[in-house]
Specification:
Length: 65
Amino acid sequence: MIVKLTHLDKTFWPKERYTKGDVIAYYEKIAPYLLPYLKNRAEVLNRFPNGIKGNCGHAFPVAIR
């Protein structure tokens, strides 16, 4: 499978200066060790298109605000 990666220079953690490219490189490095433990397990991806301090785009119920 070929996946097109974009915006690799986008900053994910400004204080530490980690970018999207850094995170992808880390996942690629640890994949051989991590993937066997994730086999046949459900996974969830939370998107934060405006960065770690931005709005994730979901409305939270009043009870957890």
